[in-house]
């Protein structure tokens, strides 16, 4: 039994990593009061740019940097539209996703079917060979550990630093933060770029580690699940980590169950999305009942215009 569970749990950690990276970035963006629905498009651009750079240069580091840069450029487009030009955030985010899907397919067409070495697994001396814990926790690539470190760093930033306090203040009341002299637009730009970089790295994990190849639409809706994770986590980093591993586990279990039970693959493919809908329904019901644990930032999605 343990020989079956360890590979399944290790695969669930890997499957959760792109969700965790993207959700962590979006959590920071939303805590600043900005709602970016373009995660799917940014992830696809990151996946394509990271794969292309790694293939052309032979360097995984170059691929990761290119992926982060591609995500940031996509986020910059969104930020200019919504923060500088006051465009609707929901419409702009949806447009960003559609744009990313199309542009990644166009630019990435020459790279379809070409192989690239996967990100190397880290061999941690003395730990990788431990029974049970070794294959479960200490035989992953660097992005897996980076995703967990990013959660810890995000929690520390939001709760233990002056800059994090200002970002949260901007998300709760941009006008009040502006009255106190905080640069609302600059803070929201910085948060948006961070979210774009994390979404780009999430995409790079898919094309350089999870399935080391590039193909059109390879994110397969993970950007939308990452958005749901932010709500599931009540905008708290550690809850996002738990939620990401939960949804990653659901995705892996459906693959094993499909082979064991022989049912149509479509039934199991929809399980992560059914789980997403159920979680959001429960959270919505609790919110309607007067709960405060899942309250979104007060100014989330609201445009900011400095009062004169």
From TrEMBL:
<feature type="transmembrane region" description="Helical">
    <location>
        <begin position="37"/>
        <end position="56"/>
    </location>
</feature>
<feature type="region of interest" description="Disordered">
    <location>
        <begin position="289"/>
        <end position="308"/>
    </location>
</feature>
<keyword id="KW-0762">Sugar transport</keyword>
<keyword id="KW-0813">Transport</keyword>
<feature type="transmembrane region" description="Helical">
    <location>
        <begin position="217"/>
        <end position="235"/>
    </location>
</feature>
<feature type="transmembrane region" description="Helical">
    <location>
        <begin position="189"/>
        <end position="211"/>
    </location>
</feature>
<keyword id="KW-0812">Transmembrane</keyword>
<feature type="transmembrane region" description="Helical">
    <location>
        <begin position="267"/>
        <end position="285"/>
    </location>
</feature>
<feature type="transmembrane region" description="Helical">
    <location>
        <begin position="90"/>
        <end position="112"/>
    </location>
</feature>
<feature type="transmembrane region" description="Helical">
    <location>
        <begin position="242"/>
        <end position="261"/>
    </location>
</feature>
<feature type="transmembrane region" description="Helical">
    <location>
        <begin position="142"/>
        <end position="158"/>
    </location>
</feature>
<protein>
    <submittedName>
        <fullName>Simple sugar transport system permease protein</fullName>
    </submittedName>
</protein>
<dbReference type="Pfam" id="PF02653">
    <property type="entry name" value="BPD_transp_2"/>
</dbReference>
<keyword id="KW-1003">Cell membrane</keyword>
<feature type="transmembrane region" description="Helical">
    <location>
        <begin position="62"/>
        <end position="83"/>
    </location>
</feature>
<feature type="transmembrane region" description="Helical">
    <location>
        <begin position="6"/>
        <end position="25"/>
    </location>
</feature>
<dbReference type="InterPro" id="IPR001851">
    <property type="entry name" value="ABC_transp_permease"/>
</dbReference>
<keyword id="KW-1133">Transmembrane helix</keyword>
<keyword id="KW-0472">Membrane</keyword>
């Amino acid at each position: 039994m343990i020989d079956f569970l360890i590979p399944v749990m290790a695969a669930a950690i890997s499957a959760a990593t792109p969700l965790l990276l993207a959700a962590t970035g979006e959590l920071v963006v939303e805590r600043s009061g900005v709602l970016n629905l373009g995660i799917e498009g940014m992830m696809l651009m990151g996946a394509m740019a990271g794969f292309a750079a790694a293939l052309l240069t032979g360097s995984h580091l170059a691929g990761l940097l290119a992926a982060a840069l591609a995500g940031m450029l996509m986020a910059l487009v969104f930020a200019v539209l919504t923060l500088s030009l006051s465009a609707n955030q929901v419409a702009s985010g949806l447009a960003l996703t559609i744009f990313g899907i199309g542009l990644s397919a166009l630019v990435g067409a020459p790279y379809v079917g070409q192989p690239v070495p996967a990100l190397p697994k880290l061999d941690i001396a003395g730990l990788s060979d431990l029974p049970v814990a070794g294959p479960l926790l200490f035989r992953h690539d660097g992005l897996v550990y980076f995703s967990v470190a990013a959660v810890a760093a995000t929690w520390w930033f939001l709760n233990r630093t002056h800059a994090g306090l200002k970002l949260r203040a901007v998300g709760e009341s941009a006008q009040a933060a502006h009255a106190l002299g905080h640069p609302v637009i600059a803070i929201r730009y910085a948060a948006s770029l961070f979210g774009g970089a994390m979404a780009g790295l999430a995409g790079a994990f898919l094309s350089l580690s999870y399935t080391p190849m590039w193909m059109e639409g390879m994110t397969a809706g993970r950007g939308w699940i990452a958005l749901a994770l932010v709500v599931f986590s009540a905008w708290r980093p550690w809850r996002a980590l738990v939620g990401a591993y939960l949804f990653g586990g659901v995705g892996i279990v459906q693959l094993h169950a499909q082979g064991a039970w022989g049912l149509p693959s479509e039934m199991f493919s929809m399980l992560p999305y059914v789980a997403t809908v159920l979680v959001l329904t429960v959270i919505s019901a609790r919110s309607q009942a007067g709960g405060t644990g899942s309250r979104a930032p007060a100014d989330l999605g609201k445009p900011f215009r400095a009062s004169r």
